[in-house]
Design goal:
CATH topology: TIM Barrel
Number of domains: 1
Largest sheet: 7 strands, parallel
CATH architecture: Alpha-Beta Barrel
Oligomer: single chain
CATH class: Alpha Beta
Shape: globular
Helix content: 40-55%
Radius of gyration: 20 Å
Order of helices and strands: HHHHEHEEHHHEHHHEHHEEEHEHEHEHHH
């Protein structure tokens, strides 16, 4: 297997030099795009869209047709794993995902088992294979899963939560039961991610979206060990190429050093921490991904360019080991044209930083921002070299 024509994303994750800072966005295929909404309408429902490999491929490619993004991410949902474990996933209008059979009884928890991804989640593997063929080696494909703790939150609560009352009651009253759920789910996630890699995913990301709801001590017991266990079991090389891993704990800025020690190649950071400070704390152990506040995308192109520049400058002019992303998923209300402003700003500004132009002259930054919003990126700044 050869690397994609544009391999800047993979090189950044492996802390190899890049000509510019690669960029992709969490939820880049989503409701802010009118073409996505049309495909979802044709699918009939979100779950039907996820379970149709051809349509999942279609929506995965939609943002790449609009923007010079440096990676594609599989279109799916983190809750496909507990759905395959028999909990009965469904979506209610205006209420988001819910489970028919949340894990509240000890007998159900004891009976829980990890599904075979090649059987119960075959539609995901078929989508990965189809997306890889459609990408035609242009940019890398990211596979993903939810973390054991985040999945357990949904599995115990039965839906999204604001106070995590059910799972935290279990955590403090019956930690043995929660550890049972987490152990089985960790095995399921490991098998699921490895199946994605075997199907063609060239990097994988674990979303610990609710890990930040834990106390410092609870995170060390109920989230981090299971992340470490998954990372230790992942396929690290396939067909002669490294398969990097990214771990993203929303609200996990307190634990960066601990996360950096679990063996992942990169840490995703949210917008609540300065990325330069994050880089100083983790040193050379891992690459970093992030971390623009998604709310910036509601601002003017001038502000978007300036805020993107702020993140890039904070990380450092060399940019080695940095993948630009939002600090969480893009909002469904984001104007699509503002994503163009962001992607162009990241590519152009990071090239200038590497050339030494921006870091020496404040006037150069002002000129850059003015140029970006009036005439677009400088010529030759395409995200797809070759």
């Amino acid at each position: 297997m050869t690397r994609p024509c544009n391999d800047s994303f993979l090189r950044a994750l492996l802390k190899e030099p890049t000509e510019y800072t690669p960029v992709w966005l969490m939820r880049q295929a989503g409701r802010y795009l009118p073409e996505y909404c049309e495909t979802r309408r044709r699918a009939g429902s979100f779950l039907q869209l996820c379970k149709n490999p051809a349509m999942a491929c279609e929506v995965t490619l939609q943002p790449l047709a609009r923007y010079d993004l440096d990676a594609a991410i599989l279109f799916s949902d983190i809750l496909t794993v507990p759905d395959a474990m028999g909990l009965g996933l469904y979506f209610s209008d205006g209420e988001g995902p819910r489970f028919e059979r949340p894990l509240r009884e000890e007998w159900a928890i004891r009976d829980l088992s990890a599904p075979d991804p090649w059987d119960h989640l075959r539609y995901v593997m078929d989508a990965v294979s189809e997306i890889r063929r459609a990408l035609n080696n242009s940019v890398p494909l990211i596979g993903f899963s939810g973390s054991p703790y985040t999945l357990a939150c949904y599995m115990v609560e039965g839906a999204s939560s604001t106070d995590y009352r059910c799972i935290k009651s279990m955590l403090y009253n019956r930690p043995d039961l929660l550890h049972r759920i987490l152990s089985v789910t960790a095995d399921a996630v490991s098998a699921y991610l490895n199946a994605q890699i075997e199907s063609g995913a060239q990097a994988v990301m674990i979303f610990d979206s609710w890990g930040g709801s834990l106390s410092a001590a609870a995170y060390q017991e109920f989230s981090l060990p299971y992340l470490r266990r998954i990372i230790a079991t992942l396929i690290r090389q396939r067909n002669g190429e490294r398969v990097p891993s990214i771990v993203f704990t929303k609200g996990g800025g307190l634990w960066l050093e601990s996360i950096a020690d679990i063996g992942c190649d990169a840490i995703g950071v949210d917008w609540t921490i300065d990325i330069g400070e994050a880089r100083r704390r983790v040193g050379h152990k891992v690459a970093l991904q992030g971390n623009l506040d998604p709310g910036v995308l509601f601002a003017t192109p001038e502000t978007i360019a300036a805020e993107a520049g702020r993140v890039l400058a904070s990380y450092g002019a060399d940019g080695t080991g940095h993948v630009f992303n939002l600090g969480h998923g893009i909002s469904q209300f984001t104007p699509p044209e503002n994503v163009t402003a962001l992607v162009d700003a990241v590519h152009s500004r990071s090239r200038l930083l590497r050339s030494g132009t921006d870091q020496k002259s404040p006037q150069a930054l002002d000129l850059f921002t003015e140029t970006m919003v009036t005439s677009g990126p400088p010529s030759g700044s395409s995200a797809n070299p070759g």
